[in-house]
Amino acid sequence: MKKQLSRRTALKNLTGSAAFFSAAMVLPSAAKAELIKEEWGDLKLKGNVNHSVCKWCYPKISLDDLCKAAKDMGMSSIELQGPDEWATIKKYGLTCAMPWGAGKGIENGWNNPALHDELLASFEDVIPKVAAAGLDKIITFSGNRKGLSDEQGLENCAKGLKRLMKTAEKYKVTVTMELLNSKVNHKDYQCDHTKWGAELAKMIGSERFKLLYDIYHMQIMEGDVIATIKQYHPYISHYHTGGVPGRAEIDETQELNYPAIVKAILDTGYKGHIGQEFVPKRPDVLDSLRQSVKICDI
Fold this sequence. Notes:
By secondary structure, the chain is of the alpha/beta class. 45% of the residues lie in helices and 11% in strands. A 7-stranded parallel beta sheet has the order 2-1-7-6-5-4-3. The longest helix is centred in the middle third of the chain and has 22 residues, at 150-171.
């Protein structure tokens, strides 16, 4: 006699994790919990790390379903979302650890003085909304070099961002410039080394300007990740993960030792979020997320 299909097996016949999770959500809470536990196992987090995830890495999963999955995994944030999404995230008891919603994108930023007035108006409009939503950061970008020297780029960025600090300080929102690689993903981007970003922070001279240290990007540009974090952590307000090469899973298929990196971050006294920003390669993308949370939960 054929063994009767379990609820899990029946649901797994659906296409992919997103369908599995969505189907599980319509079951009574006890059955839902049983299915998710059977599918993913126990994920008992240690409480040392505030876990976050970047929504853009999961384009086939709705924001609601990702919020549900993140909540059940013990995560506390869905990030890189704008004002229209913050209420949905909050509905699930989560925060948006790194919001966006102001500026002109990655390539056109503060290193271009011709954009300063426009950028200032954009950020001064959004920063009060960030604060009203109970959030405390917003992402920004240097812009591409377009022929600028690093020295001139620093001067231009500092001049524009100093004008913004009065608003950032008033609303207690930290304007956070992301460090990106200019070798593989973002050709010509100016804020592509931690030392350059730290020099900019020194020139601005406000605790409301910090850096987003993206581990994936900085491994490509400069390596020496743990030593760099130890040296420059006072200028960093947020971290992103990603496997090198390829920004895939942060497991044994790539070259970085994430438990050691996370330990180094925590050893600096960091209390913020660590955002998972890898691109899952497996069909079961939520299992990829779950594994990465476990890897970083030291």
